[in-house]
TrEMBL record:
One of its GO terms (cellular component) is eukaryotic translation initiation factor 3 complex. GO terms for molecular function: ribosome binding; translation initiation factor activity. Keywords: Initiation factor, Protein biosynthesis. The gene is EIF3K. Residues 1-51 are annotated as: Disordered. Gene3D superfamilies: ARM repeat, domain 1. PANTHER family: EUKARYOTIC TRANSLATION INITIATION FACTOR 3 SUBUNIT 11, EUKARYOTIC TRANSLATION INITIATION FACTOR 3 SUBUNIT K. It comes from the Eukaryota. This is Eukaryotic translation initiation factor 3 subunit K. It comes from Rhizophlyctis rosea. Signal peptide: none annotated. One of its GO terms (biological process) is regulation of translational initiation.
Length: 162
């Protein structure tokens, strides 16, 4: 095709009807966005039952109050020792966020418990979510390094080595 024969084509414009804002059907989005644009929503964000005091901490601005750290840490310990499986991703992330803002409160035993619980939520990405909230000094702890190795074995399906 010679350059002189080239004529840019303009796209045909479609006439669209104006959106009727009084009709609720027009306000619904045809695409449901996930939490990470294409990342499926984790299947276990919150347990069926969460104590009211924990719910008030996790779902309000109180999640950033360092005075709530002991309450949330006790809740995490109860998740590990519960007879029935209980998992509350939002509470785990709230504690790690508090540790980010208040590094002097960070408790490596609680962090190990959080990572262990998050590991039990595989294939959900919770372990990595928790991992990204830790600083480099915390990741040098031998217990946390063992958990990282365990997660790697599970993610790469090396079950015999696990």
């Amino acid at each position: 095709m010679a350059q002189e024969d080239y004529e840019p084509q303009t796209p045909a414009t479609e006439q669209t009807d104006p959106i009727d804002l009084d009709n609720d059907d027009n306000l619904q989005s045809p695409v449901q966005a996930g939490p990470g644009f294409g990342v499926p929503a984790p299947t276990t964000p919150c347990p069926d039952y969460r104590p009211e005091n924990i719910h008030n901490i996790v779902e309000t601005v109180d999640r950033y109050n360092p005075q709530n750290i002991p309450t949330l840490e006790a809740y995490i310990q109860s998740m590990q020792s519960a007879k029935t499986y209980t998992y509350d991703r939002d509470a785990l992330l709230a504690v790690l966020k508090l540790y980010q803002f208040n590094p002097s409160y960070a408790n490596l035993d609680v962090i190990a418990s959080i990572l262990t619980l998050a590991l039990s939520a595989l294939p959900d990405p919770d372990f990595n979510l928790c991992l990204y909230m830790l600083d480099d000094t915390q990741l040098t702890d031998p217990t946390l390094l063992r958990l990282l190795h365990t997660q790697h074995l599970l993610e790469t399906a090396r079950f015999k080595s696990f």
